[in-house]
Design brief:
Elements lengths: L2 H14 L5 H13 L3 H6 L7 H15 L4 H5 L1 E4 L2 E4 L10 H10 L7 E5 L5 H8 L5 E6 L2 H13 L5 E4 L10 E6 L6 H4 L4 H4 L15 H10 L3 E10 L5 H10 L2 E8 L5 E8 L5
Parallel strand pairs: 3-4, 3-6, 4-5, 6-7
Antiparallel strand pairs: 1-2, 7-9, 8-9
Helix pairs in contact: 1-2, 1-4, 2-4
Length: 280
């Protein structure tokens, strides 16, 4: 079987079971198995696959048909221009979360100390440290398996990020200039309606945010004041319909200049504010 024929077979197989991005997934899996790039399909479509490549590709296609996420098959996801290792123990980094990172970056200065709460793969903290000078940071997560992935990413990307197992602020010490979090924010009932790739293969611990999706925001807003320096900032990623609710939680807790940032689709995506100096 040549390269193009393998691609066409894979694309057709994925499309037949309803994979939304069958063309893209078929091409990326072929490139992963054959260690090629996107130009190969255009320029070298007549290249013959070895028996090992053909078998490996068809096995990958079969797994993708079972709704195993593409990123779990390749083991990697691009985020902020960096390649992060991922598996079933962490939430796959989304492009929407780059909006959060970009907003934090606009407010970071050299030497700041950052806390990434619910760090998962570590993609937020590692990206922030990668694109700033002399900042330091701690990533906290309740899942030891998630932290193993985060530590692997820090090592691969030569980051000075430190990771701590903690149930929210339970094992945290010291004060931070910035706290950032992409917490579980999907309501429990909505989790059951998610696409199989998410519901069945990503950790529920990183998805479900309680009956109304706001449980983690309430706890983090309340406790963050004990760990933020006066004048420090708190940043959240939010669901598209949570901007007002999270803003009100922060304002009621005494945060100032609370703002909502939209994503590229025009949906509310980030809420952030500043801890007032007058707070006790």
């Amino acid at each position: 079987m040549n390269y193009r024929a393998a691609y066409e077979k894979g694309k057709g197989t994925l499309a037949a079971v309803g994979i939304r991005e069958a063309e893209l997934d078929a091409r990326l899996l072929l490139e992963f198995v054959c260690d090629t790039d996107r130009n190969t399909l255009l320029v070298h479509g007549d290249r013959e696959l070895s028996s090992e490549e053909e078998q490996g590709y068809l096995e990958m296609i079969e797994k993708r048909c079972r709704r195993i996420p593409l990123q779990h098959l390749t083991g990697v996801q691009d985020f902020m221009g960096l390649d992060f290792a991922v598996n079933e123990h962490v939430l796959i980094p989304r492009q929407d979360t780059e909006i959060l990172v970009e907003e934090v970056l606009q407010n970071l200065h050299d030497g700041m100390h950052i806390l990434d709460m619910c760090t998962g793969s570590g993609c937020i903290l590692i990206s922030l440290l990668h694109y700033t000078n002399d900042c330091t940071g701690v990533g906290a997560d309740i899942s030891e398996r998630a932290l193993q992935v985060a530590k692997k990413n820090a090592e691969r990307l030569e980051s000075n990020a430190i990771f701590v197992q903690s149930d929210l602020f339970q094992n945290m010490e010291g004060l931070f200039d910035v706290i950032v979090s992409n917490p579980p924010y999907i309501s429990d009932r909505v989790v059951e309606t998610l696409m199989p790739e998410v519901k069945e293969h990503e950790p529920r611990l990183a998805l479900a945010g309680g009956e109304d999706g706001l449980d983690f925001y309430r706890e983090i807003v309340k406790k963050s004041k004990e760990y933020l320096k006066k004048g420090g900032m708190l940043f959240f990623e939010i669901g598209y319909d949570q901007g007002q609710a999270v803003s009100e939680l922060m304002e009621e807790a005494g945060f100032l200049e609370v703002q909502v940032k939209k994503d590229y689709a025009g949906l509310d995506r980030v809420v952030y504010g500043t801890l007032g100096f007058a707070l006790e």
